[in-house]
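Re: duplicated header lines in exported structure tokens

Our pipeline writes sequence and tokens for each protein into one text file. With two proteins the header for the second block appears twice in some exports. Here is an export where it did not happen, for reference. First protein block:
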Amino acid sequence: MQGSPPIWLPNCSRAAITGASSGLGAALAQALAGPGRILHLAGRDPARLGTTAASCRAAGATVTETAFDVTDAPAARAWIEGTGGLDLLVANAGTSAGTGGTSESPDQVARIFAVNLTGALNTILPALDLMRAQPPGPDGIRGRIAAIASIAAFVASPGAPAYSASKAALQRWTEATDATARRDGIRLHAICPGFIRTPMTAPNQFPMPLLMEPQEAARRSLGGIAQGRARVVFPWPVYAAARLMGALPPAWLSRLPSKAGSRE
């Protein structure tokens, strides 16, 4: 997406993105990058984060890059508060144990919830405080927060139980909080993509229907935010299949091959 015009979002000149080192996070940063845009990028890998930051600077954006783990709550809060003000936060950092057919270890389960749920909240909660103190824009919005959940949130996947459960919790919390945050002039958006071609999905050895490139997923995500949708879910055929599977009795789901649980 480097070299393309930045995606327009209303009153959004200052954005912060976690997990910006690669995949969807990098694609979102590059989609937003342009003259007059200020991007605060975070990730765990300084070298890969620097590559994303360089591409955004080449597109004309002003960029800061900070390496930290979202499970470090003080570091996450300091990063948010250090921005000085935000129009958009994208809580994108996430992890999975994979779908290799083996049970998740206790350490894996703890890590997945720590990153996908608590780690997301470690940036979202201080961002809510920051945005409440900001003056509203011309549209009455003080700020927007996008939490990257997953279509996996809508089905109890035997192949990735901690991943699907953590994303379900994040999706439900985000949508429920949006209903009350609107009173403060803040919008929250639960982004629920299907399969995306990223380093996380690269090891998958099973069919991934309607696999998307990160750039397309970024375009759809930002488009849904611009439209003001509390739930941004795509592609629709995969979403419909997930909702159908989610309506099945648990005993039926338990008969599915463990590798059927997917990662985004």
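Second protein block, exported in the same file:
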Amino acid sequence: MRPSGPAAALATAGLVVALDQATKQLAVARIGRGEEVEVFFGLDLTNARNTGVAFGAFQGGGAIVAVLIAVALALLVGYFAVHRDRPWLWLPVGLLLGGALGNLADRARDGAVIDFIDPVAWPAFNVADSCIVIGVLALLYVVEGRERRKRSA
């Protein structure tokens, strides 16, 4: 039996939240706030906070950021409710939901998101951010790729 539907999306989201929160707490426990630890050339681990959204946009946006996130999640869940039988849709929905919830947990607890992966020439990010980016790309592939295949057939 292959995974599908709401249960698979929720399991994926739960796994993302657990992995995200565990890695953030590990980073906070091992690295002082504002410190950087070089992993190898071009990649550091750091202990940084982000009060905005992606790449620090809307820094200090508080209520605006919360409303934007809530609207985006409501639209995502609504789309999933209507199209839950679409093959593989559960995966990007789970990644996006888990990533958003992982970062929202930080905002609720600390007032900012914990970022710790810090490549050169790129803003610091975390596991939740990675899952959100991968989730958006996967959602586009699942939705658009299927439509293209239908049109080609």
